[in-house]
Amino acid sequence: MHGKQEVQNLFSHMIPRAATAGLAIVFVLELILVFTQSAQAQTFQVIHTFTGGLNGKNPDSTLTVDQAGNIYGTTDNGGDGRGCGGYGGCGTVFKLQPTDSGWALEIIHDFNAGDGYFGRGGESADSQVVIGPGGGLYGTTAAGGPAGGCNGLTCGTLFNLKAASSSGQWTDHILYLFGGSTGEGPAYEPLTFDQYGNVYGTCGGGPNGNGIVFKLAPSEPEWTESILYSFTGSATSPSGGVIFDPAGNLYGATRFGPGGTCPDGCGTVFQLTPSESGWTENTLYSFQGGSDGTYALAGVISDPSGNLYGATSGQCGSCNGSVFMLAPSGGDWTFSSLHSFATGEGPADLAGMARGVDGSLYGTTYIGGAYGAGNVFKLTLGDHGWTYTSIYDFSAGNDGGYPTTGVTLDAHGNLYGTAQGGSDEAGVVWEITP
């Protein structure tokens, strides 16, 4: 691809000297515009359409991509599992593998009542699976467990899927069964591992009924749970996963409390700091329900400078949501709204943010966009601040619509995600190539 100056030099030799200067300038500028648009063009395609039944239905989790380019995700419904109260299957974990002729789908696990896997509302795992130590897949179910477990309640599990090296067959292991006193309803955002293989995440329920941040340590026959922090009435319902910084602090977000224009508070971004006596919670920011947004439902991500980024749903009053940044500054944190969604643009809803290698931010909106069915957007930092660009607007046709999950980037800068609907009304997986 020619640079701007190369394009000017190339065509300056092609324009006859007798041509007017004005014509030459217009011609060159038009060609520069064509090259610029070509360089920025991105291609959207649906790489898999779910059909329901054994194929799976409703892929409502953020995707994970491995080093070989394989894609992993979960579906809420479908599969051959039984006993989920008429939901048409208990859900699946699937793999999409790139081939010369397209993408090949493999269902690597079917949830069912027999192995105790139920998701929200009697559906599937519903959470993002992540690649953990040893190359296996780890995830949580929002409810369910082996028969007789969890005091008769459906409180959720931590599970692991491993593929046998000889047969390639995937084997399911229940690593931990959540209970009412030890948390219930693990969040759908991804789990976080430390260097020792311990798993960290959040639950919406717990001893106080307000949610917890937990740690699960590998042990036999079942992993051991530690509650790092149990939320009180000031901030409740942790709404996504947690992330580490280099110093070992954890960061996340809560859906409610304290303050703001929302009845139960508009939510917070929090920090947990470890010490010999336990973990201490520090509220970094409390949303007020104005242009800063409300309800950061999907946690936060970070950059190498320690800045935190997230999105708010705007499900309160007239606010349409926002993308925000919290920057560490002299022992304190400075809040910035990078983009406030205008009417017709958002809100960001349930989806988390993703960050590209160039520092650009990517996300999805559940509604809004050119056709009102949501979109994929990008925020780019320039000399004059952050610029919002809609990369793709869903039509709610064969391309699906109303995405509830975030964006995943692979090593080549391709974007992947899921959307509802599609030609069989069972959901789609899409790809955007730069």
Could you characterize what this model shows?
The chain has 434 residues and is mainly β. The chain has a domain at 1-35. The protein has 2 helices and 32 strands. The chain has helices at 4-12, 21-40, and strands at residues 43-49, 64-65, 71-75, 92-99, 102-110, 117-118, 130-131, 137-141, 143-144, 157-163, 170-177, 184-186, 192-193, 199-205, 212-217, 224-230, 236-238, 243-244, 250-256, 268-275, 278-286, 301-302, 308-312, 322-329, 332-340, 354-355, 361-365, 375-382, 385-393, 408-409, 415-419, 428-433. Strands 12, 13, 14, 15 and 16 form a 5-stranded antiparallel sheet that branches. Strands 17, 18, 19, 20 and 21 form a 5-stranded antiparallel sheet that branches. A 4-stranded antiparallel sheet has the order 1-32-31-30, with no helix packed on it. Helix 1 (4-12) packs antiparallel against helix 2. The longest helix has 20 residues, at 21-40. The protein is globular and about 55 Å long. Mean pLDDT is 81; it is low at 1-40, 116-125 and 147-152.
